[in-house]
Fold each of these.
Amino acid sequence: MKTENKNKFLKNEFLTLTILGALGVRDKNSPIYNKNVKQREKEELKDFLRNKLIEYSKHYHKRVSEEQHIRNIEQFAREITIKHKNILYKKEFRIGIAQKLLNLYLKYLWTSDKISEPPHCPFDNIIVSKINAKNIKWTALNGIKEYKILVEKAKKYSGKKSLAEWELEIWKRR
């Protein structure tokens, strides 16, 4: 099989798993969509997310600074909000969901040697509980300040390892 076909397959799988991992979370206190959103509208959002994730990932072929990564998460959430405000719960796409999408997609690309190591890891219930931030719900994160708190807490637990390497070890042990 041609390498190009293999890469297309992997890219599609990574995008599908990423979107499922971030949007598939059932949290009645932090829904993603307004009530009565049509399936077609959800699919349009998912297509938009796929395209944006591909676009953002192009910046990570070389190492991206932590500051730039945080700006990327903010911009990503803002772009989604602007484009899909009418179907989003409280008319905004939360930082917590945006970081999970971008960080998880980058993790897939990094672990398959498609990009450089990303500055952060995907923050989800497992990582949040490991850093004793149980009072913070990643699905409900509205602001970048709360996200930065998670990053700083994770750095204390990761020791000398990068957040990406540290999270990969945690994932392996579960």
Note: Helices lie at 3-23, 39-57, 66-84, 95-111, 125-130, 144-158, 163-173.
Amino acid sequence: MNDLIINPAKEKGKIVTFLQNTFQNQGIDHAVIGLSGGIDSTVSFFLLKEVLPPENIFIAHLYYFNSVFTPVETVVKEAKIPQENIYHISIKKSVDEILKLQNISSLETERMRIGNIAARMRMILLFDLAKKHNSLVVGTENKSENLLGYFTRFGDQASDIEPIEHLYKTQVLQLARYLGVPDALINQTPTAGLWDGQTDEGEFGFTYAEADQVLYLSLEKKLTDEEIEKQGFKNAKKILGWRQKNLFKHEAPYVIKN
């Protein structure tokens, strides 16, 4: 769909200006970013290094299953991030301790609870590193995840600044190619790494490519579910149903409004 095609050079300039202004306005010139090896965090990092010098960027690789950090570690090395600014931290011991305290033993029946705990543990560490280094936490959420509610509240959704939240996943991929992100990162299967074998699209039951177009047609073009389905998007109702069931994440906490 042509409407989802971006001008990557223009987009890069807009985001870089946004980042520059935000750091300047906050009087902070250091940043912490969690790098998973996924496309969203990698693109966010590529944009961040356009704004701050390498010594002002702190990388956190927060893993549960294994400590494999390639090929993104090549990207970090090429950016000349000082070794002392790179944190490889296993969250397994901390997460497992919480699981023990909460009597959570079954991955199959308590999968979402375990995933939420892992996401929130990562954010605890990111914000603690930000406090240690007087930094802003740079988030890595895209528009597709945001609209679908595909995030853990107070977990991977928490940040100080979000450089790519206005871009659909497929638009992030367009920007990634323009920025020169390695193909190995662009082509890998999207995953939040919340449990072994977990993938985003496996959980959804639909692809980001289809979701982006359905969300665009529904929310920006104001087409009905039936009109969208007639354009060939058989999962339209499933995609919009996924969004509907997660809308509460955008509304909570509930407060008295005078």
Note: Residues 2-201 form a domain with the Rossmann fold fold (CATH 3.40.50.620).
